[in-house]
Amino acid sequence: MGIFVVQEHHGKRLHWDFRLEIGGVLKSWAVPKGPSLDPARRRLAIRVPDHDLEHAEYEGIIPEGMYGAGPVLIWDKGAFEIPGEKPAASGLREGNLTFELHGQILRGVFTLVRLGTRDRAESWLLIKKADTHARRGWRTPVLLTPARRKKLKESSPPCSLKES
Q1: pLDDT tens per residue across span 80-111
Q2: Greatest Cα-to-Cα distance within the chain, rounded to the nearest angstrom
Q3: Three-state SS string across 2-27, please?
Q4: CB-facing half-sphere around the CA of 159: CA atoms within 13 A
Q5: Sign of CA dihedral 164, 76, 82, 2
Q6: C-alpha–C-alpha distance, residues 28 and 21, integer Å
Q7: Coil, helix or strand at residue 137
Q8: 3-class SS at 92?
């Protein structure tokens, strides 16, 4: 079992950073519309660089001038497991990774399916499987409120980069 975290990221555009602990790092995807519990809503997930495990705990406001500037909060986190004997790294390489999430919001079986590469960005689909945790018509909630934003402190994430 590994950890997963989803961070709501209010950068240039609102998106959710979906991260799975695989091979000692957080394999990461930017999901523009956020993950869904509705199996009918397949979500585009753009592969982004791996992050250090300590990034799973990051909440704060990334300062202006840094890559990803803006508020980041933990939207959901928990554990995940890979059903069967196939290692997660194999599923990633093959472009088809099925896993079960045990979070506060996201629960049940999901699949990431690689669509292809365009302009050096890997496009994937994040798909919720129809199981007892699926919710038809479910909408991804935005959790950043003015009160919660006030509690966030400006800080650089563990793997911060200057914007170029």
Answers
A1: 999 988 899 999 999 999 999 999 999 999 99
A2: 45
A3: EEEEEEEEECCCEEEEEEEEECCEEE
A4: 13
A5: positive
A6: 9
A7: coil
A8: helix
DSSP class of residue 130 equals S
Helix (H) or strand (E) holding 146: helix 146-151
Task: Please classify residue 134 by burial: count the beta carbons closer than 10 Å to its beta carbon, then call 0-12 exposed, 13-18 middle and 19+ buried.
Answer: middle
pLDDT digits (tens, 9 = 90+) for 18-69: 999 999 999 999 999 999 999 999 999 999 999 999 999 999 999 999 888 9
Check if the beta carbon of residue 19 is closer than 8 Å to that of residue 112.
Answer: no
Beta strands in the chain (DSSP E): 2-10, 14-22, 25-31, 43-51, 60-62, 70-81, 96-103, 107-118, 121-128
C-alpha distances in Å from residue 115, one per residue of 96, 98, 119, 125, 128: 10, 15, 13, 7, 16
Confidence check: pLDDT of 163 > 60:
no
